[in-house]
Every structure is written in structure tokens, then in C-alpha cells.
Amino acid sequence: MNTRNVVASVLAGLALAFSIGTFAHDGAQEKITILQDHPALNAPGKKVLMLTVDYLPGQASIPHSHAGTTMAYVLEGAIISKVNDGKETTYTPGQSWYEPAGAKHYVSKNASATQPAKLLVYMVLDEKDPVLTPLAK
Fold first, then answer.
1. How far is residue 130 from each of residues 21, 23, 28, 86, 102, measured CA to CA in Å?
2. Rounded distance, CA 20 to CA 132, Å?
3. Where in the chain are the domains?
4. CA-to-CA distance for 5 and 122, rounded, in angstroms?
5. What is 3-134's CATH number?
6. pLDDT of 54-74, one tens digit each?
7. I want to staple 70 with a disulfide (CB 3.0 to 4.6 A). Which of 28, 82, 93, 99 is the partner?
8. Please, are residues 27 and 9 in contact by the beta-carbon 8 Å criterion?
């Protein structure tokens, strides 16, 4: 990897970390952990991310969209999700769903009031795109 790509990756990572931190208010939001963040060498200007989303019992994400293509896989617990005009669906460990780039994710929440839940998420997005963008109220 050349110096320019390294610098771009570091800056993208810092921007990503800042954008994630802006959504955490007093522990009220889910915990997002970036596991991997790499430039997509076969798709210039794109990057691939792998992250986990941890929900405390009863916790929910704010309504949001993802600029890039997203796939989510439930690792533990149960997640209720509603994307675009689809119906609310409950996913359990081993189940997954797809969100096309620009989809509106109106509901993403832990289905349990007593047990935590965890997602593994894979995304392909532009190098400068944030993980999520809150939807206008």
C-alpha cells in the first residue's frame, strides 16, 4: 500500500470513529465496534467494513440510512429490523438480511427487554461515507 493510501485509510478511520462517537449519548445508543476497515483495491474509491453492533436489553438504533451496501448477521439475541417499506421482521442467531445502498433503516432494535443482542455487519461504501446517517425527523 502506498503512502497516499495509508494516509487516506487513517483519515477515513478517524472520520469514521468521530461519526460513530457522535451517535453515542450517555450509553443510550448501541455500541459499534469496527473490526476491519480496508480500501477495496478492485473498486477504487470504495472501502469494505466489518463491524459489530451490540445492543443492551431493550436498546434500539436511531432511524438511519447507509450510503453503502450492507449485510447484517445476527450473532446472539434477537433483532427486530424494518428496512424501507418492508415489514418488521425478527431475526435470530444465524439469520441475516441485506440492505441496498441508500436504504432507509426505520427499525433496528433488540427484541428482548432482558437479554443483549449482537450483529455482525459487512458494508461496502465510498471511502469517505460515514457508517450511518440519521434520518430526518
1. 11, 11, 20, 24, 12
2. 8
3. 3-134
4. 21
5. 2.60.120.10
6. 999 999 999 999 999 999 999
7. 99
8. no
